[in-house]
Amino acid sequence: MSVVARRFRTRLVPALITALGVASIASGLLSYTFAVEPPPVARPLASYDPLPTPLGLRLPGASLAPGQSYPPDRVATRVVIPRLDIDLPIILQQGDQYGDYPLCDVALYLPQFGQPGEGRATYIYAHAREGMFLPLLVASQVNDGARLIGDVVLVYTSDNFVFQYQIAEVHRHVTDLNDAFAATQDEVFLQTSEGPHGTVPKLQVVATYVSQQPANPTDAHPDAHPRQCGY
């Protein structure tokens, strides 16, 4: 990575994230809080506003390991957490077709981050609702999500691969994207809300790469039926 790119990653982007955080607190997005607070009530909840996009920037990814290759058109298509019975198609939300508020019955990926196998963070988010990421929220409220550590996360891709990850970290009350932007290895970040529309903190679960293998095309391309959902 060049000196200019390194300075861009380590200085400019965190400054932009921080600045956006100050400006966006009212819409439910940004900077860490360590305040002691009671855990949220576990129930189906409306979720968050669209996540912050720092001026449309996409950071250069980490270098791939020798022998690795990354198809530039690969995208995540499905996320499965077997123990929690989570199984969702993943799509990219297109504002012209669906509007800006995150869709229901699917997970979404942030294109400003990477894709599986690219050597950096893949960022996937979904509502804390029944049939979506609600089980992550509920699990996080028991002993700060300790039971989630070690759980398998499967992410299928458009070129018919399945990537296996293992949950390594559970972060409650997160209000920024700094860890995901700073990732220099293949990880998947899963985000969901901790409260109703307008709530600032989010739950962020981080899973690290284990392996990958070819997948059945049918498994890698689930039918997606996204729908607009109200607050």
| Helical coverage, percent range | 10-25%
Main sheet: which strands, in order across? 1-2-3-4-7-8-6-5
Uncertain stretches of 5 or more adjacent residues: 2-63
Instruction: Output the CATH homologous superfamily.
Output: Sortase
Number of strands: 8
The CATH topology comes to Sortase, Chain: A
- The helix-and-strand class reads alpha+beta
**What percentage of amino acids are in beta strands?**
25-35%
Domain count, please report it. Answer: 1
CATH architecture name? Beta Barrel
Order of helices and strands: HEEHEEHEEHEEH
Q: Biggest sheet, in brief?
A: 8 strands, mixed, barrel
CA radius of gyration: 17 Å
Shape: globular
**What is the highest CATH level, the class?**
Mainly Beta
Determine the mean pLDDT.
77
Enumerate how many helices there are, as a single number.
5
Measured between the Cα atoms of the first and last residue, the distance is: 43 Å
Task: Walk me through the structure.
- The chain has 231 residues and is of the alpha+beta class.
- The chain has a single domain, classed as Beta Barrel (Sortase, Chain: A).
- Helix content is 18%, strand content 26%.
- It has helices at residues 3-24, 95-98, 134-140, 178-182, 217-220; strands at 76-81, 86-91, 107-109, 121-125, 152-157, 161-174, 187-193, 202-214.
- It has an eight-stranded mixed barrel.
- Strand 5 and strand 6 (161-174) form a beta hairpin.
- It is globular and about 40 Å long.
- The N and C termini lie far apart (43 Å).
- Mean pLDDT is 77; it is low at 2-63.
